[in-house]
Amino acid sequence: MYGWQKDYFDDNSHSEYFLVAANQVGKSSIQIRKRIDIATRPELWPKLWPRMFNVNPSYKPMSCYLYPNQTTTLDEYHEKWVKTLLPKDEYKDHPVYGWSAEIRNKILKSITFNTGYTIYFKTYNQNVMDMQAGTAFAIDADEELPVALYPELSARLFATDGQFSMAFTATLGQQEWKDVMDVGSRRETHKDAFKRTVSLYDCIKYHDGVQSEWTEPRIEQKKNMCMNNAEVRRRIYGEFVRSEGLKYGGFDRTRNLVKYPRGSTGQEYRGVPKGWVVYTGVDIGSGGESNHPAAYCFVACNPEYTKLRVFRCRRLDKIETTASDILAEYIRDRGKIIPAMQCYDWASKDFGTIAERAGEYFVKAEKSHDIGEQILNAAFKSGMLKIYDDGEEAPKLARELEGLSITQEKRRAKDDLIDALRYAITRIPIDWSNVIIRSNGGRVSEVKETRSKADEYKEARPSGIWTEDDYEAQFYGAEDGEIEEWNDLY
Length: 490
What we know:
Layout: H1 3-10, E1 16-21, H2 27-39, H3 45-48, H4 50-55, E2 62-67, H5 70-85, E3 99-104, E4 107-113, E5 118-123, E6 138-142, H6 150-155, E7 163-168, H7 175-181, E8 194-198, H8 216-225, H9 229-236, H10 253-256, E9 257-258, E10 277-283, E11 295-301, E12 308-315, H11 323-334, E13 341-344, H12 349-357, E14 363-364, H13 369-382, E15 385-388, H14 394-403, H15 416-425, H16 432-439, H17 453-460, H18 468-474, H19 476-489
């Protein structure tokens, strides 16, 4: 075994186990191996399920093993269970290690060991409520379990104080499992569970120090076979990364998260170059342990409006804030910088009022998600927008961009810094034609034009004379989203 495999295999002190690992490193195999070991060692059962065996020492445990679909179940059964891991030859009919499988109509139903332990097989697209006996002593999931199934499955373990285990590569990238594996953060859930994130580099040697088949040159070769950086992080390093179904698929950490420039002395330069202008965005939040935190971003733009740099940002995590608190923190971090425009979330009237009384001029942000998301994705993908990595706040923004799915509920979304960045960047008059030509080596790509309601009304009022209704209508699209967002929070 590798060291991480042995840690997982030997541990029986947790009620939940999560293994997030690179491909083809033995995460599924070690989960199967541990289940077979428990099934063939009756002396372990009273220790694993003391309450059940205190009531009835002759209990015959049953567990459930889940695969994504029936095809995968049969393939895994023949290739891993039978060929490699289940007792065979003279042990196939052994009084302890012996076993028999029930397969009907090419569907694997169960494996029963001569100890009396039975493993029932289910798939993610079956009705998980339809389990034998209704109560399980353990549940094992191979690959990422749809989160919607977890509550029903975990309820099957209540009576037995049973164990849940999942070994997977984060291909679906569901936020709930990401929170589970976000060890040490304030968003971490299931904190008492056994957790391991495993990369191919954790598999170079076995637990006893013997060299494995994985070498650094071989791992580098596998890296080169991956399509993008997200695939490298997921397939090679075993990290919880999503590259599909993301709101900000244009963001790539290797392209868009960069180091600060260095001056002639070699020191990092964190200021704003001469001639560049600064735009800022402030997202208002009440903060604290369970509410959305406040956040703000500072974006510098070159005189040609073809380069954007997030050179400073901050998310006020775990800090309860009022509108005046947020303004004070923002002004402190702004220092002597004089922004060309300061934008704020105009859902907070208090912030606008307090800022005005303090002599600070803020404009209402463009809150349309469609416009902001499209601009951000285009800016990231073209390479014109980069985030300077300060080692503290910028990585938070990167994680938000990498983790926000298109289906995530707004009230649960981790997008506070993203919102602040959206507010700033949608007010910058970017020269898209120049950007697209440069980013494609001189080849012009078609880019869908983004126009705000304000642009449409300007065209409709060539004289420049607007009515009160025009001003109201300017924010109509944003208002719909605003109402939906506040309803979610309510």
